[in-house]
Amino acid sequence: NLQGLQPGMAGYDPCMEYYVEAYLNTGEVQEALHARTNTNWLACPRTSVPFHYTPGPVSVVPTIRRLVERGLSIWVYSGDLDSTCSITSTRYSVKDLNLPVTTPWRAWYTPDFEVGGYVQQYEGGFTFASVRGAGHLVPSYQPERALVLLYSFLKGRLPPG
């Protein structure tokens, strides 16, 4: 039921993490996932929970570069409303790859002819796409647009222009 959701955020439920926690803390689910039982699993640690995090590399750019050099098709996407990993910071990281552009920045569309976002392709099979109206968890905010991107990736071609 999408009633009562914020305008422009159809399909996104800000309480989703609470449903996830309730689901993951069900004994039957923990057993099915072979997870530690009798544990209070959290969707995202809060400040009251000790948070033991060892940061990874400062940048994923070297890893992406190695994967592209090895011939893998790499797609990176960002929701244009993402406050966690902003589209601006992602674009700066993509720029740091120093890859020649093969298809310039252009709009891509959903089957309903709505702008789904923008996309640019680079030499070596690297593609960067934005998803219009999506936050950090793109499929939660814009499931249809996320599906268009996934389908395009699996087909090995850019989303419809």
UniProtKB/TrEMBL annotation:
Gene Ontology MF annotations: serine-type carboxypeptidase activity
Any single Gene Ontology cellular-component annotation: vacuole
A Pfam cross-reference name: Peptidase_S10
InterPro entries in UniProt: AB_hydrolase_fold, Peptidase_S10, Ser_caboxypep_his_AS
Keywords linked to the UniProt accession: Carboxypeptidase, Disulfide bond, Glycoprotein, Hydrolase, Protease, Signal, Zymogen
KW 4Fe-4S (keyword) present: no
Gene Ontology biological process terms, A to Z: proteolysis
Coiled-coil region(s): none
Superkingdom as given in the UniProt entry: Eukaryota
Family: Belongs to the peptidase S10 family.
Protein name: Carboxypeptidase
Origin organism lineage: Eukaryota, Viridiplantae, Streptophyta, Embryophyta, Tracheophyta
